[in-house]
Here is the input.
Amino acid sequence: MLDPASAEGRQALASRIAEGLGDQRLQGPVEVLTVVPLSGGASSATYRLEALRGGQPLRLVFQRTAGSEHAGLGRSVQAAVQRRAGALGVPVAPVIATTDAASALGDGVITGFVAGEALAPKWLRLPDFAAARAVLTGQCAAALAKLHAAPAGHWADLGLSGGSGAELLAAMEALYRRLGVTVAAFDLAFAWLKPRMPEAAPTCLVHGDFRSGNLMLDGAGLAAVLDWELTHLSVPEEDLGWLCVQAWRFGQWQLQVGGFGTREALLAAYAEAGGVACPQAVHLWEVYGTLKWGMSCLQLADDHVSGRVPSVERAAIGRRVSEVAADLTYLLAFGDL
Amino acid sequence: MSHPTAIQLLQAVQLFLKEAEAALDGRLAFHAKVAGNALGMVVRELAQAPDAAEDAAFAPFGGRDALCEGLRRGDFLPGDAAVLRAVRAAALARLAVDNPRYPTFQRLMERDLP
Here is the structure.
């Protein structure tokens, strides 16, 4: 794959950006000046681009799939979801263009740069974000209510995955069995969830990874909802329950909503924004979400243990299974965490 | 007995990783921190033997795999107080090794099961 920072890579990016932005005769040509890698995971790489369009500075972000490990949504579908979510009123980075999986740049998306802080441990603690945190629960509730208000048919042409709660749980259990690890608290949670998960068909699109780590904040609160890679068809309570999972509270455990708000405030604001969610179902999906995070820990550990991706970070994440086991035990014993 | 002990050697490596972390930046500094935390788990595991605690907790059910299999087949119910007690004991023994500062550790230990 082409290095986006090379002269050829910058040229290829500039051409996609020019196409994405439209009429060049009016605005002048696009030139990509610098490409700075922001973060590199095993499955995805993100770069910040400084560009000029007709001499005017343009700040953009290029995110692309790296390696063959990636099993998530294609970037073009992800970009289409992100555009439509933006049109529904969800704050997202504006999509400028996509790059094709078969092209030299690989499967990627170019978006406008949104200024702000994406590191949740920072914006959860820094005094500069106190005002932003105070309004964030309401903003998250409103963003989710807008996203969930569109019927499942709104997304029908995109070929998204998804299913009933029962189907999603069955898929997760199959993954757990494949990994060949037994954690008693996980089996406890599967046994508790199985008779409770809804059988009804999906009613809407869920972001699928709406947690504090995927929220970009500025001084006024929610600036953008990031990472639409796990989006799928489900029910509203999946996103609401996932947002309450302990792992994204970063130690602020009394604030169930991502470490910044209470569950009651989230559900009240969600209803006020026109959303319909059942509190018992949100609890069910919080248990499901906690278990799902546990599966991610097992999978990341398996990457290391199997020798596929040797990594001290992934090996250590495997031991976070114990945190999830304690969370699940608490949730099932006391009905609240 | 050899001197220093395995735990003392691990603690020495932890000290070194702290120094290394301060001299590194970015991804390597982060990995030095993660590596130091991982050694902390090994130190606690050597001192606490969580496997034995887990085995003891699950012995009345025929062991961990038998309990998991029983939960899957419906022979054991997730609301059963004895099951919950055993799963809690095992979860606490593991978390005491892996991350005793995790907030749910104290909360789960201190609250009486219904």
